[in-house]
Structures are given as structure tokens and as C-alpha cells.
């Protein structure tokens, strides 16, 4: 994932016009009733939250669904439950932010499976293209990730983290949490670059090889593990866990700041 000086067409000063196409007109309360079990799959502590926090979470999900369009391609069977699950993944990523909707993408394209892109000569299960403002997800891979708790992977979370990085590290970024994000980004990469830390991660088989592709992929994989492998992450690499949590200002690391 390389951003290729895309700031020339990016404006973060105000939220772009909403383009969402979610076809249900429901309240946050109704979302809990109809899709609570779906949200709990990607955010397991959902039912443990006080009701007012559930309402806040669902309000954010609905705002996401109003802001961003979903486009199903090549016969992908995209239903409302999948849309809510994808939105809930983004919301849990940005739960610590008051300004949680961003302009680095405006649509989510869903393919039934991995997609070959001739212009890149690459096949992707997920992809973030800042120039086109699009996040692409393969539905089969997405569904496998949210229903498998053992591999530490979360396709949607990975691509949303790329989009969030683009929001925060552009030269003219003005998000209110940009300083915290950049500090965390720096601390994470400094920690990872230390030879003894890299060797320890390899010894524990903590990161899949893809994480070492570049700094951006490392950040996205670590964010996946922050949510999907929390206990192991926190116990084996407590400093790194805190750096990731503080970078995204997540409530689970708030007390330790």
C-alpha cells in the first residue's frame, strides 16, 4: 500500500456529501434489535456494554451507512447484515474519536472473491485506493475472517486502517487526533525496527510475514491483532499494545495514557 502523493485531490477540512445507499430507515434502538447479533460477531463485548453505549455505537454505525455507498460487483451477494458488520468494524476502529467519519474513501466495493486488477497486475482480497476513494473487499475472505477467531486476520479492519493512516499522515491533515496518531505511528515503527523486538515477534510467530512488507502494512496488521488477539498481544508485547491503542485513542488503553 503506497499513497503516491495523493494529497492533491484530498480535502479533509469538511466531510464530503453523504452517498450512502443503505435501504433500511431504522433507529439505533431498532438496529440493536435487528442486528445486535451481527454487531456482536465483530465486536464481541457489544452486549456487555451499558445500553447508552450500545445506542452510541449503533448511532455511529447508522451514520457510517448513511455516509458511504456499498457497491456489489460480479454477483456478490451483499445483504444488510454484511453491510452492518462492515460498518461496525469501522466504528470499533474509530471508537475513541469524536470525528470518526473521514473523506479518504466514499464507497466500498464488494466482490464475491479475490479480484485480479490488470492495471496493477495483482490479485487482491482487499485494497484501498485513495485516488479513487474506494475500499475493495472480497466477500468470502471478509466472512471467513469475522467468523474465524484463530488467525488474527480481519480484512475490513486492515483496509480501514489504511484509509485512517491516509487521513492522519498527509501533510495537510487537520483531524483533531492527528498528533496522537502520528506519535503512535512513530513509536510503533521505532519499536518494530529494534532487532531484539523483531526477533521476539518472529520467535512467538506473532506476525504474519506480510506485515513486514512496509510500515503501512505493519500498522494495519498490528491493528488487526489489537482487536483479534488482544490477550496474547497485551501479555507478550505490552508496550507495543499500548502504542497501538494510544495511536487510535481506543478506550481499552485510555486509563494507561
Layout of strands and helices, then pairs:
Elements: H1 28-42, H2 51-67, E1 69-72, H3 80-93, E2 107-111, E3 115-117, E4 122-124, E5 126-129, E6 134-138, H4 139-147, H5 155-169, H6 178-193, H7 195-203, H8 215-228, H9 230-236, H10 238-247
Q: Provide mean pLDDT, rounded.
A: 91
Using only CA atoms, what is the Rg?
Answer: 18 Å
Measured as a percent range, the helix fraction is 40-55%
Query: What is the number of E strands?
Result: 6
Listing every helix as H and every strand as E from the N terminus to the C terminus, the arrangement reads HHEHEEEEEHHHHHHH
Measure the end-to-end span.
30 Å
Strand order within the widest beta sheet: 1-2-6-5
Helical segment count: 10
Shape: globular
**Which percent range describes the beta-strand content?**
5-15%
Largest sheet: 4 strands, mixed
Q: What structural class should be given to the helix and strand makeup?
A: alpha/beta
The poorly predicted ranges are 1-10
Amino acid at each position: 500500500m503506497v499513497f503516491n502523493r495523493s494529497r492533491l485531490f484530498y480535502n479533509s477540512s469538511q466531510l464530503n456529501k453523504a452517498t450512502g445507499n443503505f435501504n433500511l430507515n431504522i433507529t439505533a434502538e431498532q438496529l440493536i434489535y435487528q442486528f445486535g447479533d451481527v454487531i456482536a460477531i465483530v465486536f464481541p463485548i457489544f452486549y456487555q456494554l451499558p445500553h447508552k453505549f450500545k445506542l452510541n455505537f449503533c448511532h455511529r454505525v447508522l451514520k457510517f451507512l448513511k455516509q458511504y455507498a456499498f457497491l456489489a460487483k460480479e454477483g456478490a451477494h451483499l445483504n444488510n447484515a454484511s453491510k452492518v458488520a462492515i460498518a461496525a468494524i469501522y466504528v470499533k476502529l474509530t471508537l475513541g474519536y469524536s470525528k470518526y467519519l473521514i473523506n479518504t474513501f466514499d464507497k466500498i466495493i464488494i466482490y464475491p472473491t479475490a479480484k485480479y486488477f490488470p492495471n496493477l497486475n495483482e490479485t487482491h482480497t482487499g485494497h484501498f485506493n485513495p485516488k479513487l476513494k474506494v475500499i475493495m473487499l472480497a466477500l468470502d475472505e471478509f466472512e471467513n475472517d469475522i467468523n474465524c477467531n484463530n488467525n488474527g486476520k480481519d480484512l475490513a479492519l486492515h483496509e480501514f486502517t489504511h484509509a485512517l493512516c491516509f487521513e492522519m499522515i498527509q501533510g495537510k491533515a487537520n483531524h483533531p487526533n492527528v498528533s496522537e496518531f502520528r506519535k503512535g505511528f512513530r513509536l510503533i515503527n521505532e519499536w518494530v525496527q529494534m532487532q531484539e523486538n523483531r526477533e521476539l515477534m518472529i520467535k512467538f510467530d506473532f506476525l504474519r510475514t506480510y506485515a513486514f512488507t512496509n510500515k503501512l502494512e505493519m500498522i494495519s496488521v498490528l491493528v488487526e491483532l489489537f482487536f483479534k488477539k488482544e490477550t496474547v498481544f497485551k501479555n507478550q508485547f505490552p508496550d507495543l499494545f499500548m502504542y497501538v491503542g494510544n495511536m487510535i485513542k481506543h478506550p481499552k488503553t485510555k486509563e494507561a495514557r
